[in-house]
Design brief:
With about 180 residues, this protein is mainly alpha-helical. Helices cover about 55% and strands about 5% of the residues. The protein is elongated and about 65 Å long.
Length: about 180
């Protein structure tokens, strides 16, 4: 709280020049009396090398009570090996986010009744993707033949396609 009051004027005055903004941001973070978590979402959309360099500098100079969370779909062009070697990096990868059969049973149980084999097939077809499992469960509620549905279910299913269109393709520029 209050950090923006120190940082935003520097951003507005300089257009975000790292040599001006970064010292202000570090000072604001250092002034914080409680632990701070700075979350940078959709970092894969950043294409400016100056931003990457500024983030790397921020990571190096951040006070110990600051945790930086970087959400991205691809590895950023940062010296991740260095952070791994220092044990200063925690990584959550796609495999860590996949639901296994037990987790899928807990997620799907209130939504739809499936045999263990059907559930295992659905987990395999969605690669454990939570949103895919939920979308499949919603569709399963409307079918009389769950076994046939699970056998056919995949990336071309209407709800999955709608979700992907909304969440993934909708976020792209018209030129992409």
């Amino acid at each position: 709280p209050g950090s923006a009051d120190q940082v935003v004027p520097a951003v507005e005055a300089t257009g975000g020049a790292a040599d001006t903004v970064l010292p202000r941001l570090l000072a604001a973070l250092d002034d914080a009396s409680a632990p701070v978590t700075l979350v940078l979402d959709d970092y894969h959309l950043v294409t400016n090398d100056a931003v990457h360099a500024g983030l790397e500098r921020l990571v190096e100079l951040a006070p110990p009570h600051v945790t930086i969370v970087l959400c991205t779909r691809v590895d950023p062009p940062l010296r991740l090996g260095r952070l791994r070697a220092r044990q200063e990096l925690e990584e959550i990868r796609a495999a860590d986010l996949r639901f296994d059969d037990t987790e899928a049973a807990e997620l799907l149980g209130p939504l739809v009744e499936l045999s263990p084999r059907q559930r295992a097939d659905l987990v395999a077809r969605t690669e454990g993707w939570a949103a895919g499992l939920v979308l499949a469960a919603l569709s399963l509620r409307r079918t009389d033949d769950p076994a046939a549905f699970v056998e056919r279910f995949g990336g071309s299913h209407d709800l999955v396609a709608d979700y992907l269109l909304d969440e993934v393709l909708g976020a792209l520029d018209d030129d992409e």
